[in-house]
Amino acid sequence: MAKIKLTDLALRDAHQSLFATRMVTADMLPICDKLDKVGYFALEAWGGATFDTAMRFLNEDPWERLRKLKAALPNTPIMMLLRGQNLLGYRHYADDVVTKFVEAAAKNGVEIFRIFDALNDPRNFKTATEAAKKTGKHIQAAISYATTPFHTREKYVELAKEYEKIGASSLAIKDMAGLLKPYEAYELVKALKKAVSIPIEIHSHSTTGMSVAALVKAAEAGAEILDTVISPLAMGTSHSPTETMVEIFKGTEYDTGLDTNLLLEIAAYFREVKKNYKKFESGFLGADTRILVSQVPGGMLSNMEGQLKEQGALNKMDAVLREIPLVQKDFGYPSLVTPTSQIVGTQAVLNVLQGRYATLTAESKDLLAGKYGACPAPKNPDLVKKALDALKLEKEVTHRPADDIPPEYEKLEAEVKKLLATDTPSVEDVLSYAMFPKIAPDFFKKRSQGPVVFKPEPDAPAPSAPAGKNEAAKYVVNVNGANYNVVVAPAGTVITAPAEGAAPAPVAAAPSGGGSVIPAPVAGSVIRHAVDEGAQVASGDTVIIIESMKMELEIKATAGGKVHFLVPAGAKVSAQQPVAEIG
């Protein structure tokens, strides 16, 4: 009797989609014993945004998480999501770094590599796939699913054949925005089953409300494996509930054979754990049919919500969702999955806030110039020219982009030796630094303090009845994950201070009043000063590089003269905050 296997996403994609990837390892380990007894095909537990978030927000070593999970899940394969030549970052890496990363991931506990490329460019699979083959681990090639004029069933079949030829052990359809309609799922799987002999897994988000039906029809067409998630972490921007799919198939030829009672025990655990992350929870909890047009993936949607809050522009969400498909078309119809989802999404935000293409992020320029690979369709020629001019390139890159990147592991290792003052840094630390060179140094300094701890927070109490005109009301307010003590004095004055344990805001200098002030166009962090303090610059010269919404932006001089910086490198800045002056 044919049976359907399930991969559960509770330990990675579910919390990435629902609460910005904030789940800490300490909330995963207590339930691993029961998860390991279920009989899943795999548990997706690593990769994607978990690596970045662990260091950036959780003060956790992502490699240590992988080792702990492997020890706690001896019977269930751990799957990781790997972005091909991008690995887990937002750029292409040299082949030696890709190879080292895959080797280290296999050594630390990854048994299934789900490898994908946002552009579905097979050239970007090459090195990661070859490295994974050498480890002897399962290679799952994932096709990024989209519904554009250039993402067709025939193209997906062509890709599937190519991926089987290069050595994939299985194939995944990665429907990151919930765009896979049930009857199309049936026809697509039927076509793929005729073309390839390897098992097919379906990954579909529930954002648009179609995922349960899509998984059923995919199973009927012959898909062997389905991605689901335990019910408290299901639906909304996440995925179909595991228990629901088990019950749908029970007693049929697609029976999963899984124990619903055990799954309910696991669900009870996660129902309590979820309370720890209420402050990060996405507001997109039902079916959002706007995504049928914008095609925004679940994880991107919750992150974009946070990014717009940071910019003080949450009311612009509908405008951004309308802008995304326009940017996607201009950029050659890349499917919206990391990193292209972040590139297109951030560019759409900037277009709405500043005017269409008034600013191009560094990553937008690289995508337009072909540095990420071949897009499915021609791009807006005016934008391509703008990007090429900015990058001082004569023409688009048409060969495998990684061919232009010289070996870089030894250089990165030397930098980490200096950073950590050791001649023997671990391979894992070098790779962490390679992925996120702006985040890792600070993480290395704070790593010994241990991970952050999240606990359920009581709802803020309503102000007590006036007990006297001279008494102040006191609150603890959480802003973007940081707690602040807020005191409302009798006269209405509001006094705020970081709560215990919160880092003080960086001190910024005030403009002198005698020069041309340069404001930050958006909220973000100062990566570096592009010129020296006091340097003579011309109007239009780049003076500061900031990181905003995980993308790099150049801030340019608004006049000619000597530059004076008002904020140091590493400082967080708000939108329109003065960051430098020319005078």
Overview features:
single chain, 583 residues, alpha/beta, 4-stranded antiparallel sheet, 20 helices, 19 strands, 36% helix, globular
- Please summarize the sheet with the most strands: 8 strands, parallel, barrel
**Arithmetic mean pLDDT:** 88
Q: What overall geometry do the principal axes of the alpha carbons give?
A: globular
Tally of contiguous helical segments: 20
Detail the poorly predicted runs: 460-472, 474-506
What is the structural class? Answer: alpha/beta
- What fraction strand? 15-25%
**Helical residues, percent:** 25-40%
What Rg do the Cα atoms give?
24 Å
- How many strand elements? 19
Instruction: Report, as a whole number of angstroms, the end-to-end distance.
Output: 79 Å
Q: What order do the strands of the largest sheet run in, or round the barrel if closed?
A: 1-2-3-4-5-6-7-8
